[in-house]
Amino acid sequence: MHEMIVGTACKLDPGVEVALAAYRHQIFVRGLGWQLPDAKDGMELDQFDRPDTLYIIGKDANDAICGCARLLPTTKPYLLAEVFPDLLNGFPAPRSPDVWELSRFATKPMSPVDRLTQEAAKQRFRALFAEVARVAIDQGAARLITFTAAAIERMLRGLGLHVHRAGKPKLIDGEPVLAMWIELDDQTRSALGIAVADRGAAPAH
Amino acid sequence: MCPILDPSAGHAAWSHDGYIRLTHQKLMELEFQEAMTWEDPNLHFELKCDGIPASSAGYCEWIAPVGNAQASIGWAWFCAGSTKKTGAPNGISSNIMLVDASGYDLGPQMTCEHLGEWISNRGC
């Protein structure tokens, strides 16, 4: 990716906000066929797009959005807890300052004609995910919770991240979807090229 | 070391991090049932790009009750000219963490390896 933009909704340029909503509509509604009741007029936004919601946005060399992710603290309402708590297999929805929810993650180009090679797509995925992890860690996160397709879980494991599912997949809009933990531990940081957590200076002798 | 919560004593099966911790013996005692199996053309394409001669590919999901939760194991598979399913690379996923007799985590990597052997031994 040529550029990464990180910021809360209230700090994003209005043009970027609109472009992001259009990108999300193209990818999730038109591309993946998600049935999102709040999506309309070519824009995809929901009740979790609040002024304090944190976004990571990737842009290509033509200044077009080519990737996005959304981070929400679990100390406030978030998608998995409010809408799909049954994906947690009975585990209580986390409510902790060190757990953040990742949602609306995508790295596909807006236009279907801009196809990437498999390797290029993997590198773009990794780059955006590394930025998401960095931003989350800066916010005090020790782990992420998300829900996604089984294929994404496999991809993250293939990149070397420490991920584990919360429970079995369930069909949502005809697709198997599962909730997943992503530990922002040394294994994940190392896999993404992020500095390993500093455990403090060694004691003087 | 994380405590092994004993589901048979009526405790919740999960640990603080969402893992269901089990010894290998306890894993062997669970009664898993197939929950779903599906073909995935994207996985098929990906495996072929990686040089794996897959004629079809997909995912398989099993579940087993553990106290008031469910142990969940999923695995990616492919067939290469026959109906026998073979595990695809990086394809094993679960909410299980295997522990040794003292209760120490074997870790995600070793847990995955043990689950892979267990899946193979079941002849699936």
Question: Can you describe what's shown?
Answer:
The complex is a heterodimer of chains A (205) and B (124). Chain A is an alpha+beta fold and 205 residues long. Chain A is 29% helix and 25% strand. In chain A, strands 1, 2, 3, 4, 5, 6, 7 and 8 form an eight-stranded mixed sheet that branches. Chain A starts with a strand and ends in a 13-residue tail after the last helix. With 124 residues, chain B is an alpha+beta fold. Chain B contains three helices and six strands, in the order βαβαββββα. Chain B has helices spanning 24-29, 41-49, 108-121; strands at residues 20-23, 33-39, 56-66, 69-79, 86-94, 96-99. In chain B, the strands form two sheets. In chain B, strands 2-3-4-5 form a four-stranded antiparallel sheet. Chain B has a two-stranded parallel ribbon with strand order 1-6. The longest helix of chain B has 14 residues, at 108-121. The N and C termini of chain B lie far apart (33 Å). The interface between A and B is medium-sized, with 23 and 30 residues.
Largest interface: A-B, 23 and 30 residues
Residue fraction in strands of chain A: 15-25%
Reading the helices and strands of chain B in chain order gives EHEHEEEEH
Q: What form of chain A results from the Cα inertia axes?
A: globular
Count of individual beta strands of chain B: 6
How many helices of chain B in DSSP terms? 3
Give the CA-CA distance, first to last residue of chain B.
Answer: 33 Å
Flag low-confidence runs of chain A: 201-205
Poorly predicted sequence stretches spanning 5 or more consecutive residues of chain B = 1-12
Total strand count of chain A, please?
Answer: 8
Write the layout of secondary structure elements.
The complex is a heterodimer of chains A (205) and B (124).
Chain A: E1 3-8, H1 14-31, E2 54-59, E3 65-73, H2 79-83, E4 99-106, H3 118-138, E5 143-149, H4 150-158, E6 163-165, E7 170-172, E8 175-183, H5 186-192
Parallel strand pairs in A: 4-5
Antiparallel strand pairs in A: 1-2, 2-3, 3-4, 5-8, 6-8, 7-8
Chain B: E1 20-23, H1 24-29, E2 33-39, H2 41-49, E3 56-66, E4 69-79, E5 86-94, E6 96-99, H3 108-121
Parallel strand pairs in B: 1-6
Antiparallel strand pairs in B: 2-3, 3-4, 4-5
